[in-house]
Amino acid sequence: MRETRVVPAYNSQCAICRLKELRLLDAAHILSDVLEAGEPTIQNGLSLCAIHHRAFDQNLIGVSPDYIVHVSRRLLEDEDGPMLDLLKGFHERSLSVPSRSADRPDRERLDIRFASFLQLAV
């Protein structure tokens, strides 16, 4: 995934927490590039900070096709301190999406990925 296109599409900030430190931002695939629909396009990417990227890849957070962030039940039920409380705070909040509609995350890809999140997020 080319960060030179995805991250700027999101105004160089994390789509979840709005962090603007470029050294901590990644272009995260919605669908892996090993899948047929996993092309390296802006519509198959999210600009995420390192912690949200890792949580997204591990199905600890998911994004529904209506651009709502969901935190796994496992994390929501855990009591582990202030960093976890920060993650929990993004549950059911709106994802920040690019202003250009052509650059927004593809809803069909999000639907596929969100279905996996719902199955794997225990």
Structure, described:
The structure is a single chain. This protein has one domain. It is built from five helices and four strands. The protein has helices at 3-9, 50-57, 73-77, 82-88, 107-120; strands at residues 25-29, 45-49, 61-63, 69-71. The mean pLDDT is 92. A two-stranded antiparallel ribbon has the order 1-2. Strands 3-4 form a two-stranded antiparallel sheet. Strand 3 (61-63) and strand 4 form a beta hairpin. 30% of the residues are buried. The radius of gyration is 13 Å and the shape is globular. The protein is of the alpha+beta class and 122 residues long.
Treating each run of at least 4 consecutive H or I residues as one helix, how many helices? 5
Strand neighbour order, sheet with most strands: 1-2
Q: Which secondary-structure class do the elements indicate? A: alpha+beta
Overall mean confidence score, pLDDT: 92
Tally of individual domains: 1
Stretches with pLDDT under 50, minimum 5 residues: none
Q: In whole angstroms, how far apart are the ends?
A: 28 Å
- Which sheet architecture does the biggest sheet show? 2 strands, antiparallel
Overall radius of gyration:
13 Å
Tell me the total number of β-strands. 4
Percent helix among the residues?
Answer: 25-40%
Give the amount of beta strand, in percent: 5-15%
Helix and strand element order = HEEHEEHHH
List keywords for this structure.
two-stranded antiparallel sheet, 122 residues, 4 strands, alpha+beta, globular, 5 helices
Question: How are the elements arranged and paired?
Answer:
Elements lengths: L2 H7 L15 E5 L15 E5 H8 L3 E3 L5 E3 L1 H5 L4 H7 L18 H14 L2
Antiparallel strand pairs: 1-2, 3-4
